[in-house]
TrEMBL record:
A Pfam cross-reference name: Aconitase
Cofactor(s) demanded: [4Fe-4S] cluster
The protein, known as: Aconitate hydratase A
Pathway terms, separated by semicolons: Carbohydrate metabolism; tricarboxylic acid cycle; isocitrate from oxaloacetate: step 2/2
GN (gene name): acnA
Matches recorded under NCBIfam families: aconitase_mito, PRK07229.1
Organismal lineage: Bacteria, Pseudomonadati, Bacteroidota, Flavobacteriia, Flavobacteriales
Domain of life (superkingdom): Bacteria
Length: 755
């Protein structure tokens, strides 16, 4: 039986009235996305049509999901909100703080020892406030959500950018910062700019070596890492119906890599099969009652150009397997063409590791397709030339795969079965085979492959592919291997060819698990004590940020002018820094240490205008804070792309940075800055980025008149006394300006709850 079935029944009970009213107001047939959005308005039944890409709208999400790294800060904030219980169903999943090294048993034991303080905190705070808790080893948040909580037509937010994975089960599921989640936990609406809509029409059927992963790898190549910004992708067509539910999840999951707000598919037979296979017949039965509202109207899919802002069409029958990378998930190359491309660019051909799993590709189907290739290697006497690592998506999948002999096939190839957790995908990988900054290549089925992402080595060239393609390439040990056409030499000196992978959508014997790892909260948590030691290095209770004084901001100094790509990994690195995600002051010591200084092309090396000396970014910023001097960070395009981590906004705020001025923002990061009381601005003229000099002082001469749709004027005072005046745009509405005035959105919530 499903979790929260009564809540789901209520969603479906209101859907008919709300969708029909929305269709009447909009005056035309509706996409699936519009049906879900209009049926989740904070004010209930729709009363007006919203303009895509312009109107800010308040929504009422059905549930929230948090992973352990981001849950710490989210729940530390929620503890200040003045409530006894979360307002909507919420879960916490411990999947990020488990380092992959030796194998599941040893790695999980070590994580439970080293992060006991954090896990105990998360368990106790969950128990106190009515939050479902999934223990370390229970699984990766997004796979666990897909198996237990996602439902067609629902709306969910989560404190991880890959929350979008639940679109595979027909949800509008959006990754947000912890402050957004706190709003909803505290009974407040969730605000989102009404998204634009990109329709992706899928025709044909996957065949041969091509997998669901190749759909999103192809889309990423078309749209690039920022092409989906401000938009929801809606997949439709006969090709979409031909995909498995978990395959749909894979496609939606990696939509985060193109900047999309989220992605989704209409309810179909594959979703019903998955719901019933995961013991949720009750949801399937209820969904079938409102089936017409759980997909787009027929007129929309018949003439998509009239209803979407952009339409992409992909014939699955003609789609070829891809590998994307290195260093960016949108550099798409069909397998077979990669060898020549690698030679031209000096990418290492030898592959050292093949990694299968992550929230993107760790389903039962994924493991069976990859294991079908691994089984061929065993049977054909092929000894893998690369190391293998496997991360199952959940304990349910791991247990079922072990029962069905799937994991043993990998073990016969000397693969390491890691914990049911994120591991190498988020930099939680104690990799011992490469020392220092050695240039090397790995292939994986993850979603991101930014520099330093997996192992901290800037020279690790990571390529993203399907699990079965990763398995084939790892067996060959070569990036230029094309399993569709090339052969391999086995241990007997024979020339052999890998056959087309085969997989099972769902386990024939059903899913099975002995210990899922779930802990339900106590009914009344008022007596539960949440302890945070004042001397802890891992956890720190929060102090409110100071409110705005209402005046202009003057004499602000440049902290860093970031050059090129500056993701949340550059602003607040993961890996070993994950241990400090609950301690704002300690984790602030990694602030912007990965950003490239535009003036010397070095990382973590900026000039202090106080001393004239160069130092690390956090060190220089702490000098400015001690002296009471405000600072500005300047950035390039798509600043803050990547993870939803709000630490990338909270850390600069904590250290005294007042403004982030860039060419363009990634959506989640811009919202996070607003929530934390920061000024997030964009150059009205992008060329003005070039006017910023290393010793500049910034005067925001009309900030006191801060208002929606009103540009701000900035006076740049250069070292030689000369000045430039530039204009900056912003997207703050009246409500968001109130956040800024109060010092943060949380300050405003506390103020409202105190009335």
């Amino acid at each position: 039986m499903a979790f929260d079935i009564d809540m789901i029944k209520k969603v479906y009970a209101t859907m008919d009235k709300r969708v029909n009213k929305a269709r009447e107001i909009v005056g035309k047939p509706l996409t699936l996305t519009e049906k879900i959005l209009y049926s989740h308005l904070w004010d209930g039944t729709p009363t007006k049509a919203f303009t895509r890409g312009k109107d800010y709208v308040d929504f009422a999400p059905d549930r929230i999901a948090c992973q352990d790294a981001t849950a710490q800060m989210a729940l530390l904030q929620f503890m200040q909100a003045g409530r006894d219980n979360v307002a909507v169903p919420t879960t916490v999943h411990c999947d990020h703080l488990i380092q992959a090294k030796s194998g599941a048993t040893e790695d999980l034991k070590r994580a439970n020892d080293t992060s006991k303080e954090v896990f105990d905190f998360l368990e106790s705070v969950s128990n106190k406030y009515g939050i479902g808790f999934w223990k370390p080893g229970a699984g990766i948040i997004h796979q666990v959500v897909l198996e237990n909580y996602a439902f067609p037509g629902g709306m969910m937010i989560g404190t991880d950018s890959h929350t979008v994975n639940a679109g595979g089960l027909g949800m509008v599921a959006v990754g947000v910062g912890g402050a957004d989640a706190v709003d909803v936990m505290a009974g407040m609406p969730w605000e989102l700019k009404f998204p634009k809509l990109i329709g992706v029409k899928l025709t044909g059927e996957l065949n041969g070596w091509t997998a669901s992963k190749d759909v999103i790898l192809k889309v990423a190549g078309i749209l690039t890492v920022k092409g989906g910004t401000g938009a929801i992708l809606e997949y439709f067509g006969e090709g979409a119906k031909n995909l498995s539910c978990t395959g749909k999840g894979t496609i939606c999951n990696m939509g985060a890599e193109i900047g999309a707000t989220t992605s989704t598919f209409g309810y179909d037979d594959s979703m019903e099969r998955f719901l019933r296979a995961t013991d949720r017949n009750d949801i399937a039965d209820e969904a079938n009652k409102v089936k017409s509202h759980l997909t787009g109207d027929p007129e929309v899919y018949a003439k998509p150009e009239q209803y979407f802002d952009q339409v992409i069409e992909i014939n699955l029958s003609e789609l070829r397997p891809h590998l994307n990378g290195p260093f960016t998930p949108d550099l798409a190359t069909p397998v077979g063409q990669l060898g020549q491309k690698a030679k031209e660019n000096g990418w290492p051909i030898k592959v050292d590791w093949g990694l299968i799993g992550s929230c993107t590709n760790s389903s039962y189907e994924d493991l069976t397709r990859a294991s079908s290739i691994a089984k061929q290697a065993v049977d054909k006497k092929l000894k893998p030339k690369s190391d293998f690592g496997i991360n199952p998506g959940s304990e349910q999948i791991r247990y079922t795969a072990e029962r069905d002999g799937i994991l043993k096939i990998f073990e016969d190839l000397d693969a390491t079965i890691f914990t049911n957790a994120c591991g190498p995908c988020i930099g939680q990988w104690d990799r011992s085979d490469v020392k220092g900054d050695e240039k090397n290549t790995i292939v994986h089925s993850f979603n991101r492959n930014f520099s330093k992402r997996a192992d901290g080595n800037p020279n690790t060239h990571a390529f993203v592919g399907s699990p079965e393609m990763v398995a084939a390439i790892a067996i060959s040990g070569r990036l230029d291997f094309d399993p569709m056409n090339d052969t391999l030499i086995n241990e007997d000196g024979e020339e052999v060819k890998l056959e087309i992978p085969k997989g099972l959508e769902l386990p024939p014997l059903g899913f099975e698990v002995k210990e899922s790892g779930y802990l339900a909260p106590t009914e009344n948590g008022r007596s539960v004590e949440v302890k945070v030691s004042p001397t802890s290095e891992r956890l720190q209770l929060l102090d409110p940020f100071e409110p705005w004084d209402g005046g202009n901001l003057t004499n602000a100094k440049l902290l860093i002018k970031a050059f090129g790509k500056c993701t949340t990994d550059h602003i607040s690195m993961a890996g070993p820094w994950l241990r400090y995600r609950g301690h704002l002051d300690n984790i602030a010591n990694n602030t912007l240490i990965g950003a490239v200084n535009a003036f010397n092309k070095k990382t973590n090396f900026v000039k202090s205008q106080l001393s004239g000396e160069y130092g690390g970014v956090p060190d220089v910023q702490r000098e400015y804070k001690k002296a009471g001097i405000p600072t500005v960070v300047v950035g390039d395009h798509n600043y803050g792309e990547g993870s939803s981590r709000e630490h990338a906004a909270m850390q600069p705020r904590h250290l005294g940075v007042k403004v982030v001025l860039v060419k363009s923002f990634a959506r989640i990061h811009e919202t996070n800055l607003k929530k934390q009381g920061m000024l997030g601005l964009t150059f009205a003229n992008e060329a003005d980025y070039d006017l910023i000099q290393e010793d500049d002082t910034f005067n925001f001469v009309d900030l006191k008149d801060f208002a929606p749709e009103k540009q701000l004027t900035i006076e740049l005072v250069h070292k030689d006394g000369s000045t430039d005046t530039i204009k900056a745009n912003h997207t703050y509405n009246n409500a968001q300006i109130e956040w800024y005035k109060e010092g943060s959105a949380l300050n405003l919530i506390k103020k409202e709850n105190a009335k």
